[in-house]
What does this fold into?
Amino acid sequence: MKREKTDKPSGERLQLDQAGLDAAKRDTNDGAITPAYGPWREDIVKMLNDALATELTCVLRYRRHHFTADGLASPKIAEEFMVHANDELGHADRLAERIVQLGGEPDFRPESLPERSHADYDDSTDLNAMIKANLIAERVAVESYRQMIALLADKDPTTRRLLEDILADEEEHADELKDWLAR
It folds into this structure.
């Protein structure tokens, strides 16, 4: 296969920013936080704390549904609710860890979860209503992670990759729940 030749402007070279490298040598107490994070670090930490609140809300909703699911199909579905709850808890842990890496503090305050979470808590007693509530929450999570990923673009590639990984899990959860509703 023949490769297309692309011309680069004469004299232009790809090279690292020496000033940025020199700045990275200073302030070693900041760990991985280099000046390249610039003005976005605090916004990213807030965004991650809101995602953390969403994941914690989802953990609580899924666990409640696990323990209160009732009906003929409920044992298998309740088991899946617990699997999802544990996945969401893993997401919460990964988000909290990233917040700390960025020099922030993970916000686990229960009283502020409803205001910060993108998804709602649900106390349905009907199995189909539980499935639907969880599907809606997963769809909200998918959309919020997509938006966060787009906002981050090249501002924080490490956080972007973390969110892309979590997004894949949330999409899988949504597909599973959709299948449960179809039965």
